[in-house]
């Protein structure tokens, strides 16, 4: 009975230009969707900035208490940059709060996604890229502009760091989308994703490097964490690239790990989505 | 009173009926408080003092804050759902019932799953009290009990105040989090960590210094590097009462200001 599916067979070698146009249109739609929540955006940027102050003071107190010039490779200016760009990145990679897909699955609306001539993973990714673009303008900039007014921060000394940082942020966004998609897709099987969601929220925050730079952890923990989980690539990698704790070759190495995780997770998303579609057919008849 | 009791019982039975999912929630909720403690431990892995205090002393502050916040979040934290109620117009259903609006809102979805978190907070607090080397006197025992209770009241008032903003500013989004969750983060560390106008605003203008920092200093017998006298820690209940009075006032103003969305 494997010939019975609810999905329309997709054209294999569609016109690449048309696909790019579709992707772009979805991205613009994603951008515009978020630009309508203006008040909530202001409120969110304000809250991110307050948390920037809180985290920055605590990490600077840690640096002062350690009594050495640097803690785990960071001097106070690097820690300040880490905190303020981190507060800005939080909403760009969108660590938390994305449940669009899970909601559509639980209401059944997701069926409409399957009828579209574009893969759901690509569809949601394009929308998410648009969302991230909006967040760069409205949520990354405020803390990044306000922080330096009150704290001495560190800006990259090597010109190559800026493009690497941008690349790393793009990869982190795609990677984070992949993780969120998988958490949401668990709704195909579980319906209620509160469990996976709580797990994701906690793990991504602490092992992504939001609460403290991961280099504060013992060395035997950092290596495996970075290679075997995608979490440090979400947050810690772009920030470490920015504050130049490593020489250029190592920056490139960290970004390569990010890229590998991003590709792997997107493939996994497609695989999970295909499995789920088969299951939906069985359920929905 | 009986009506409120019925609301609470209904809530409890509906939450307990999905036993496995309730158990998962109980375990999951422990983690956010556990993370606060892990963060302190990691920070002390790279430094010996934080704001002039050592690990055990700092843990008294973190424990007191965690205990107070987790309990207040369980009892009153749900009031932040008011943005949803106001936006969808469901708040009208609350108002037409012959019960007071605030207790109804709190009891309508009392998250009993957060019990585990409040218990962990209390556990951390007791552990910290036991290991910080406090010279116990009857007065300090009293303060050790009164201070976290005052903290619960203070955070509760903070939840109500930030939620009331929704009456004027429907799309306030994450705005309130800056003062509720932000307040929790602020009170998890010694106030001496912060400085400048930011410290003045959070610690003294908003009153967060009296949740855990000054009571903990009074318990530990450590002088305040900022220079306030030792009895400051005993003012915690007064600050909590003042916050409650303000919260009541703002909530009433908000209720009067509320006009239904009509949807």
Automatic annotation (TrEMBL), chain A:
Annotated source species: Asanoa ferruginea
Keywords: Membrane, Transmembrane, Transmembrane helix
Name of this chain's protein: ABC-2 type transport system permease protein
Database matches in InterPro entries: ABC-2_transporter-like (IPR010390)
Annotated transmembrane regions: 42-67, 79-98, 136-155, 161-183, 195-214, 252-272
Pfam families, sorted: ABC2_membrane_6
UniProtKB/TrEMBL annotation, chain B:
InterPro entries the record matches: ABC-2_transporter-like
Superkingdom assignment: Bacteria
Lineage: Bacteria, Bacillati, Actinomycetota, Actinomycetes, Micromonosporales
Protein name, UniProt field: ABC-2 type transport system permease protein
TM ranges: 21-46, 58-77, 118-136, 142-170, 231-251
Keywords linked to the UniProt accession: Membrane, Transmembrane, Transmembrane helix
A Pfam family recorded for this sequence: ABC2_membrane_6
UniProt keyword Membrane present: yes
């Amino acid at each position: 009975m494997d010939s019975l599916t609810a999905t329309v067979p997709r054209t294999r070698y569609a016109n690449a230009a048309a696909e790019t146009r579709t992707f772009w249109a979805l991205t613009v739609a994603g951008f515009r969707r978020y630009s309508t929540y203006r008040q909530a955006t202001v409120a969110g940027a304000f809250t991110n900035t307050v948390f920037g102050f809180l985290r920055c003071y605590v990490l600077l107190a840690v640096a002062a208490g350690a009594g050495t010039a640097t803690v785990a490779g960071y001097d106070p200016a690097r820690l300040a940059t880490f905190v303020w760009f981190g507060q800005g990145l939080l909403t760009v990679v969108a660590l938390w709060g994305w449940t669009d897909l899970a909601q559509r699955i639980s209401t059944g609306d997701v069926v409409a996604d399957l009828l579209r001539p574009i893969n759901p993973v690509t569809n949601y990714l394009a929308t998410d890229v648009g969302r991230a673009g909006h967040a760069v303008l409205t949520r990354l900039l405020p803390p990044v502009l306000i922080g330096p007014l009150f704290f001495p921060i560190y800006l990259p000394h090597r010109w190559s760091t800026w493009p690497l940082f941008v690349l790393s942020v793009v990869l982190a966004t795609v990677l984070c989308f992949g993780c969120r998609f998988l958490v949401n897709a668990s709704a195909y099987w579980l319906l209620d994703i509160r469990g996976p969601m709580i797990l994701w929220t906690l793990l991504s925050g602490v092992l992504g490097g939001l609460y403290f730079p991961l280099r504060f952890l013992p060395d035997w923990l950092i290596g495996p964490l970075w290679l075997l989980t995608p979490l440090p690539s979400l947050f810690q990698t772009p920030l470490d690239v920015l504050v130049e704790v490593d020489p250029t070759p190592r920056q490139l190495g960290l970004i390569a790990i990010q890229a590998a995780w991003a590709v792997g997770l997107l493939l996994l998303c497609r695989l999970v989505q295909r499995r789920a579609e088969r299951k939906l057919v069985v359920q929905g008849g | 009173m009986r009506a409120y009791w019925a609301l609470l019982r209904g809530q409890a039975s509906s939450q307990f009926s999905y036993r496995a999912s309730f158990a998962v929630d109980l375990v999951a909720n422990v983690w956010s408080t556990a993370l606060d403690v892990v963060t302190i431990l990691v920070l002390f892995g790279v430094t010996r003092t934080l704001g002039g205090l050592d690990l055990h002393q700092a843990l008294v502050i973190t424990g007191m804050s965690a205990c107070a916040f987790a309990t207040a979040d369980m009892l009153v934290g749900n009031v932040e759902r008011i943005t949803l109620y106001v936006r969808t117009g469901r708040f009208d259903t609350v108002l037409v019932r012959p019960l007071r609006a605030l207790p109804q809102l709190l009891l309508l979805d009392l998250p009993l799953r957060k019990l585990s978190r409040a218990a962990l907070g209390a556990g951390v607090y007791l552990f910290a009290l036991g290991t910080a080397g406090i010279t116990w006197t009857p007065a300090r025992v009293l303060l050790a009990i009164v201070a976290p209770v005052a903290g619960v009241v203070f955070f509760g008032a903070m939840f109500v105040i930030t939620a009331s903003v929704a009456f004027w500013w429907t799309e306030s989004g994450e705005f309130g989090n800056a003062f509720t969750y932000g307040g929790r983060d602020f009170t998890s560390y010694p106030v001496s960590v912060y400085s400048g106008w930011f410290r003045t605003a959070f610690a003294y203008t908003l009153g967060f210094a009296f949740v855990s920092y000054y009571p903990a200093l009074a318990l530990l017998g450590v002088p305040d590097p900022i220079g306030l006298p030792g009895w400051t820690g005993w003012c915690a209940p007064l600050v909590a009462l003042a916050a409650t009075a303000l919260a009541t006032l703002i909530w009433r103003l908000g209720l009067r200001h509320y006009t239904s969305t009509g949807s």
